């Protein structure tokens, strides 16, 4: 009975682990210079009001393109930036860039105005109490724009006083608070009743299975109903097909964000996208 230790497996696992650590270290070093080297850019993904067919706002999403490494996904570089102060500098830059929308985009009065700009706020920003630094930018935005700050469920793990205070600060400045990637964290639901939250963004994971998979349909339907009972606006993330859209519309979702309507686009492309959309609001369903 010759039992052999799978040596190769162990070696290759260590090598993989090693390569990973090296990449993270190298990215961390390059990320520290990314802003100075002009490697960071900001995209916007428009959001649609399902009832009116009008554009309600858009989410700002960060992009990093390094000359030697190439494009790096935010899924990879945001967690690295959260390990130190980098995420503060990056989010400052994003807020500063968001003010450019005032020059390059003008939503029509009585139409889709004000336009809501969504910003992803890392938990570390809340925990380091750096939110007030970012709020100053929202005061410089003109009357055409409002802001929504997206927080992931992790922020609400064990609701503490600080988080409640930060949320009150947002409300007092007219900034909406949303729960991003709802349903993927591990928090209990207590925060939904105790804290000032305005918007629930249902994660793509749940949207992927509809229509069709019974359990996911029940879940999404129940989440929409619960959110509405709590006076929260509901947004479905990652809607890719007309079938998903129509099902969500039937179930009373308020807004959608996803490739079925638009991928993230350059800030300078927003006006054209907006004008084109307003010529035929439901054209995207006919593709
Ligand atoms: P998120 O906040 O949940 O953003 C939505 C992500 O889903 C974006 O990916 C978007 O491009 C993608 N998406 C939207 N609709 C669809 C769809 O229909 N199909 C598919 N397959 N994907 C869709 P992205 O831009 O790669 O960002 C990934 C994550 O990185 C974000 O998830 C967010 O957690 C983080 N992130 C991006 N920018 C920032 C930022 O400025 N600050 C912070 N803290 N995090 C950011
Ligand atoms: Mg988000
Ligand atoms: Mg999200
Ligand atoms: Mg998500």
TrEMBL record:
This is EAL domain-containing protein (Putative c-di-GMP-specific phosphodiesterase class I)/GGDEF domain-containing protein. The lineage of its organism: Bacteria, Pseudomonadati, Spirochaetota, Spirochaetia, Spirochaetales. Residues 24-278 form the EAL domain.
